[in-house]
Amino acid sequence: MFRNKKLRHSTSWIVGLGMVLTIVVSRQSILLAVITGMVIGIITFIHLLYSWQRYKEMERLSLYLQKMAGGVFSLDVRDNDEGELSILKNEIYKMTQMLSEKTAQADESKLKLAEALADVSHQLKTPLTAMTVMTDLLAQEDVPKEKKEEFLGNVSSQLIRMEWLVTSLLKLSKIDAGAITFSKEPVEVQRLVDETISPLAFQIQDKQLAVKKVGDYQAKIVVDVRWTKEALINIVKNAVEHTDTKGVITISVTDTILYTEIAIHNSGEPIKDKDLPHIFKRFYQGSNAQKQSVGIGLALSYHIVTKQEGAIHVESASRKGTVFTVRFYHHREHDKTVT
To answer: What InterPro entries does UniProt report for this protein, alphabetically (predicted)?
Structure first.
């Protein structure tokens, strides 16, 4: 404590002034000088005691900050006293809580990144292994021409699959990082659905599927058209893949004062109950997943919709099929009167 230069100076001043005052008073009265000396001694003692208490508090704060720097955020230095030191303690505690939350978020991000990298590694390993085997076979001179063409087709298919996977992962990463700014523009649901179905026309025709459109197709919603279209394409594509040949896909629109809802129903095999809670998790592959599925399309749709303050859920039951429902809420600044 006495290593503190300011404390030494203040104590020296008190003692020095006390001695001078005592000497001056002693010329008038010895008793008065003794009393003056006792008062100065008491003042000096109180000053030292107060300084010692503050020194201990500062020492405690210093130790607290050292532990905080080491990653220990569980200590609490707050108190209900008044004064500058108490204010400092409370401010330090607030900063500690903020750092604790930031650290927890960083740890969670690291964990998610590690899981994502592991998933990506797993997803890329299968097509890379298949392509390695097929290229080795293509290098053999005794492989028939028909087989070589088949292998080349398979390699091309795997490359397309990998390109889609990497592109989708980049989109998801950008959305997670908040690097995507979703624009808001009014669009008629009729146009949105038509532009969703168009890229899937070949698959729909190939399976001889019927697509029925019912409901309030004249309704308008305020969304990012490009991203919302991508979300709907993934959902409709999933419906096409899981609907039997000559089956039916129904896209119905419900427009209310509060929201506009787009429901995509397919008559294929229902999703198992155990898979329903996980259907929007990235890389999740349910019991009915296609062989080439990587489990990322629905996850991307979920993130696109929810980042626009929308909602998406799925219901599935035997004899009723599966329904994916996407709901966009009307906001005051973009009400339903937009034309």
So the answer is: BphY/WalK/GraS-like, HATPase_C_sf, HATPase_dom, HisK_dim/P_dom, HisK_dim/P_sf
